[in-house]
Write a structure and sequence with these properties.
- The chain has helices at 3-13, 19-38, 84-90; strands at residues 43-45, 49-56, 59-62, 69-72, 75-82.
- It is an alpha+beta fold and 92 residues long.
- The protein has a three-stranded antiparallel β-sheet with strand order 1-2-5. It has a two-stranded antiparallel ribbon with strand order 3-4.
- Helix 1 crosses helix 2 (19-38).
Length: 92
């Protein structure tokens, strides 16, 4: 599901809300998660899962086209861990 499909689904579930408001709600939700992760925090949605970040060390990578060695900087990457209820729903 992509963002526009999520907006459409939420709009269908809430026909009393204008599509513009639904778009703003979805954008605000994603912005709040992003800001929390940017600050090094964690976002937990009970029954769904938890978003956090993990640190990746600097390393030497390879350019797949040329095989040339390339330095890759250290960075933080997003990580999602599904919750217990989510795993149970998927493995019925």
């Amino acid at each position: 599901m992509i963002r526009s499909e999520l907006v459409q689904h939420v709009a269908q579930e809430n026909p009393d809300l204008p599509i513009r408001d639904v778009e703003r709600i979805v954008a605000t939700f994603f912005d709040a998660i992003t800001e929390q992760l940017r600050g090094g925090g964690r976002v937990e949605l009970r029954g769904f899962g938890a978003f956090s970040t993990r640190a990746r060390d600097a390393r030497t990578g390879r350019n797949p086209r040329t095989g040339e060695a390339v330095e890759v900087d250290a960075k933080r990457v997003p990580y999602f861990k599904p919750g217990k209820e989510m795993r149970a729903r998927l493995n019925v």
